[in-house]
Specification:
Largest sheet: 4 strands, mixed
Strand content: 5-15%
Radius of gyration: 18 Å
CATH class: Alpha Beta
CATH superfamily: Glutaredoxin
Order of helices and strands: EHHEHHHHHHHHEEH
Pfam families: DSBA
EC number: 5.99.1.4
Catalytic activity: 2-hydroxychromene-2-carboxylate = (3E)-4-(2-hydroxyphenyl)-2-oxobut-3-enoate
Structural class: alpha+beta
CATH architecture: 3-Layer(aba) Sandwich
Number of helices: 11
Number of strands: 4
Low-confidence stretches: none
Mean pLDDT: 92
GO molecular function: 2-hydroxychromene-2-carboxylate isomerase activity; oxidoreductase activity
Active site: 14 (nucleophile)
Number of domains: 1
Amino acid sequence: MARKPPRWYFSFRSPYSWMAYRDLIGRYPDVAESIEWLPFWEPDDHHNEHLAQNGVQLPYVAMSREKHLYILQDVRRLARERGLEMVWPLDREPRWEVSHLAYLVAEEHGRGREFIDRVYRARWQDGLDISDPEVIAGFGPELGLDPELLGGAAADPAVRERGLAALAALHRDGVFGVPYFIDGFEKFWGVDRLPGFVASIRGRAAARTAGVAG
């Protein structure tokens, strides 16, 4: 069986995923260019129903008040360490399909990385509501993408089918949170595990180079 490429699962919802993204592109651009980028999100009821019909149950657990308060403190601390100015968005009626399915559209048109950067900036630095289709559509002109395709992704049956495939993939990979990094059989969960993931990938690359040179 062929070895799957190294990959990481990101989510626009997670501040830890946002920081992992910043670390990945800022500190480890060689690794960022050599891995697959895959979205992770909490599906809506319709997607959940289809997943359940296919025996897929994603491991989502409600967050306790104590954990929420800890995350507020921890994220501020990590942002200061990175010199990041951030805001904490208010998710009144979150619909994570809106942004993550729009990513699939942007990725299909070769603008996935730019879309990720724009959405992370919108959510964690500008405080915009990325569950609003109009907000997502508004990124279209600056990214060279059709606003209607982005804003309407969550309602497009074909894109929703691709979303189901993406959710099934993270289920097969055993992903239970983000950021989540996979290199072969090695799995790394959390922004603080990114250096280990990088070392694993670079170590294999160095071994291949040494083998060729030898």
